[in-house]
């Protein structure tokens, strides 16, 4: 089925998915304020502190070593300016914004699924599929995570491309890549969709949109004297200092993240395969995105559940295609019923889809809260599959306060390695860098890949 716009037919999917998402995220936020405020995780503390630090004169990638692209720092710097230097207000604003971005990301996936299939049931199923990984609506309560913004901007770029807004789509795709490196996968998809729908002119406009964002970033960091360290830390370091892994470990990690929701993976695989074989001319980008981001979680980067979010969006779209096909089969199976009977059958089928998806969402909560025996077995298998890694130093060797202390006490660290992630430790070992380096502002003298 060719891609349809919202103006071509009345849409009911948002009336179903919207309230579910709103109630779920609002309930989580209320529970957090009542029971856990102001809990903050290490990654959000780092992003939010860096945003505040920028306003105090700190320069990312020079005074702060980090592998993440700059968009999250721009976001938290803006929030820090609004908060007026109050770290509690900054954290509250960060939680609220990240919750809104995560919720919007779920709805955007539903919208893209509707644009791609024209089916309300497919859109609802896609949105609910996003919720099978509970961290999607739990982790925003800890503050800013780069992957949530990469997901939001990336799926937004697909929606804009499908709505024939190639320049804006290119901008959104660039912001996704600028939030987290794996967001770069959206760029070729958006350019390809634009070319498919409006020809070379559309592809050029999409490229121009992405180029405009990249140009601004280059100019800003060149002016701050941080262009070279930004490139080294966000491009070179992740490629050479990433976590060692085995394929078996990554497979077990994926199963742990999805839990009982893993039953949807073959459903999505069918949707990708059907599209690749029967509808590749119009919806090629669905299996292409599934493959690109599937490679990301299998061989590039999978250090936690947040690293699966972009791939999860294409799993959801694969499920949407399968639901579209199932709805079509149901319609064909009926022997020319009356219009009323057809509408009744389609309504019942949509209810069944929503109920099944809802049960899978609830199963995600059960998987995470109750830690059933299959989960502990997978955790054991994952540990056994991890490669041995021996490093001469560890994050504990740094003479720096904890990241939470740095955040709440608004410290201006004396070294640029005060966060000291494991990737950072590997980089220090590979480059003969020092734990107590005051600035991280140059090209490394040596990179030991072995």
UniProtKB/TrEMBL annotation:
Residue ranges of the TM segments: 12-34, 96-115, 146-163, 169-195, 207-231, 251-272, 284-302, 308-326, 347-367
Secretion signal, residue range per the UniProt entry: none
Superkingdom of origin organism: Archaea
InterPro entries, A to Z: AglS (IPR031897)
Pfam family membership, one: Mannosyl_trans4
Keywords (A to Z) from UniProt: Glycosyltransferase, Membrane, Transferase, Transmembrane, Transmembrane helix
Any one GO molecular function term: glycosyltransferase activity
Entry protein name: DolP-mannose mannosyltransferase
Lineage: Archaea, Methanobacteriati, Methanobacteriota, Stenosarchaea group, Halobacteria
């Amino acid at each position: 089925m060719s891609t349809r716009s919202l103006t071509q037919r009345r849409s009911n999917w948002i009336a179903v998915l919207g309230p579910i998402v709103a109630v779920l995220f609002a309930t989580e936020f209320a529970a957090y304020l009542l029971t856990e405020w102001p809990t903050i995780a290490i990654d959000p503390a780092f992003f939010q502190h860096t945003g505040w630090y920028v306003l105090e004169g700190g320069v990312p990638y020079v005074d702060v070593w980090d592998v993440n692209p700059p968009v999250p720092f721009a976001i938290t710097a803006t929030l820090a300016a609004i908060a007026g230097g109050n770290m509690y207000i900054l954290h509250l604003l960060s939680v609220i914004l990240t919750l809104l971005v995560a919720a919007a990301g779920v709805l955007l996936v539903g919208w893209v699924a509707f644009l791609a299939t024209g089916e309300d049931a497919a859109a609802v199923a896609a949105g609910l599929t996003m919720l099978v990984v509970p961290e999607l609506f739990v982790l925003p309560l800890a503050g800013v995570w780069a992957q949530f913004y990469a997901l939001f901007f990336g799926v937004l770029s697909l929606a804009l491309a499908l709505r024939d807004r190639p320049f804006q789509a290119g901008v959104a795709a660039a912001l996704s890549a600028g939030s987290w490196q794996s967001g770069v996968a959206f760029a070729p998809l958006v350019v390809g969709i634009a070319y498919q729908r409006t020809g070379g002119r559309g592809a050029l406009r999409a490229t121009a949109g992405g180029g405009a964002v990249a140009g601004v970033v280059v100019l800003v960091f060149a002016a701050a004297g941080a262009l070279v360290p930004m490139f080294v830390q966000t491009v070179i370091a992740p490629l050479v200092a990433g976590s060692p892994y085995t394929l078996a470990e990554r497979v077990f990690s994926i199963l742990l993240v999805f839990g009982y929701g893993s039953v949807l993976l073959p459903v999505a695989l069918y949707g990708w395969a059907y599209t690749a074989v029967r509808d590749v001319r119009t919806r090629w980008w669905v299996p292409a995105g599934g493959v690109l981001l599937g490679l990301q979680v299998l061989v590039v980067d999978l250090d936690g559940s947040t690293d699966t979010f972009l791939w999860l969006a294409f799993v959801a779209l694969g499920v949407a295609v399968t639901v579209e096909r199932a709805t079509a089969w149901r319609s064909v199976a009926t022997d020319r019923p009356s219009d009323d009977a057809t509408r009744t059958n389609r309504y019942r089928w949509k209810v069944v889809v929503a109920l099944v998806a809802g049960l899978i969402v609830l199963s995600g909560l059960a998987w995470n809260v109750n830690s059933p025996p299959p989960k502990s077995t997978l955790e054991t298998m994952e540990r056994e599959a991890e490669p041995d890694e021996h490093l001469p130093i560890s994050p504990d060797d740094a003479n720096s306060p904890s990241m939470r202390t740095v955040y709440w006490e608004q410290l201006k660290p004396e070294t640029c390695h005060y966060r000291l992630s494991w990737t950072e430790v590997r980089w220090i070992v590979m480059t003969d860098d020092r734990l107590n380096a005051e600035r991280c502002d140059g090209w490394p003298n040596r990179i030991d890949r072995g």
